[in-house]
Amino acid sequence: MVMDGIGCDIWTAVAEGFRRLRGAAAHDLWLGRADPHSFRRGLFTLGVENSDVKAALDGPYRADIEALFHDITGSTVRLRIQVTSQTENGSNRLPVAPTVLPESRATAARRRASKRGGSPADSDASVPNSNLASPEAATPIQQQGAEASALRATRQPMLVDTTANRLVLRATEAWVDDPSGGFNPLFIHGPEGSGKTALAAHALARLSAAHPELDPLVFSGESLSADVNAASRSRSFGRLQRSWADRDVLVIDEAHRLRNRYTAQSMVVSLVEPVLRRGGRVLVLSRHPPGDIFALSDRLLSHFLAGMVVALREPDPASRRAVLASVAAVLPVGVEEGVTRAVAEHCPGSLSDAIELLRGAAERAAADGRSVAQADVQQQLRQPSPTDRRLDDLIAMLAEETGIEVERIRSAEKSRDVAAVRHLCVYLSSHSLGLSSRRICRSLRLRSPSIVAYARRAVDRRRRLDTDYEQLIQRVQGRLEGAQRDLEW
Q1: Same domain, yes or no, for 294 and 337?
Q2: Burial (Cβ within 10 Å: 0-12, 13-18, ≥19) of residue 185
Q3: Whether 272 and 331 share a structural domain
Q4: Is the pTM here over 0.85, yes or no?
């Protein structure tokens, strides 16, 4: 929907006021791609590109934007934010980042070895793959050794541009290109195995290519605590601080492990403050947002909140398939069709667990001199139950009837048409298949069983008012094998 000229002028003024209030970095990240849709009867509708932006604008920034509307228009304006675009694009694979996040001691050891002329640990990744290029000229043992070397090289963190990480990727690249724009420190939080390490490795690779003179200091909350405790016991705390001084890039991995460790937190503060004063870059990775890290000192918390805090959400099924397809593309052995899809949809655990499963199967297949087949991963996958298969059939039917893709129904997208189909799926799963609320929530990744009750009421109301909708439900129920039409719950 195209907004008229007055509405566009009002939105331009509001966006400019947000820039002055919260800074250019917050404006570019949260409102840079926002699309004003309509302004009618005190309700301003704003379209955003994904649910992460919607969550941020619905949370800490809603009051600011509505207050700016009141200052500009002189009346109360309610803000409605909706996701308007959920385009899946897994084909744009970013280059494999050659930098792995090490522990602090390993970083120092590798730096000293490189000054002496290289380290043995780096030689494996630089072994030429001439045997792979001409397998007919190599013995089977040489081929297996070359394939093992190539497999070790593919264990570097890989970053694939997907809808799950696109917002965080933009913030990370802004941190690399222009840290003074408000993205410093950059605090990235997300669940385990969601790709935080790959993001940091990608950022360090880009930073090394643009500024080879920089010497990053990379450590985790766990390793920092161990180093600090060892220095305290040996009374070499000052020497440890001096060895880490004069760095312009600081990366703190697993910052949530600093909880309740006040000595280590003081060390982090003493490291962060000089880096920020010199205009250096600070990147923090954590499973939890800063405010949820237990027993974090106020001083360290203020540093974490001083820059930009961005959430990395759990990859949806389409994003998992895109990442695994990119991993399979760089493996030195072939992967049969359907293997990556099966691993993406049925591997228990996180995305990193699925990647390790695929790489492990590739190592076994390379040892036998063959490609990866379904049998190599079948035993480690969660087998779909009869209930899972019936629910999959129901979702496929609804996708065929409504034209909404299966991936969008199973995703976290909250656009009106997708939410309506998801409500119908919940209703039929409960009303016709007799599934429990918790079982439906696990299958569709819903936050709470209360959403199931809401979906039932919403579908019941629409059935009474819309004849075509009632016919759609009857048609899908008729296609469900063995479905019961009026099952009581």
Answers
A1: no
A2: buried
A3: no
A4: no
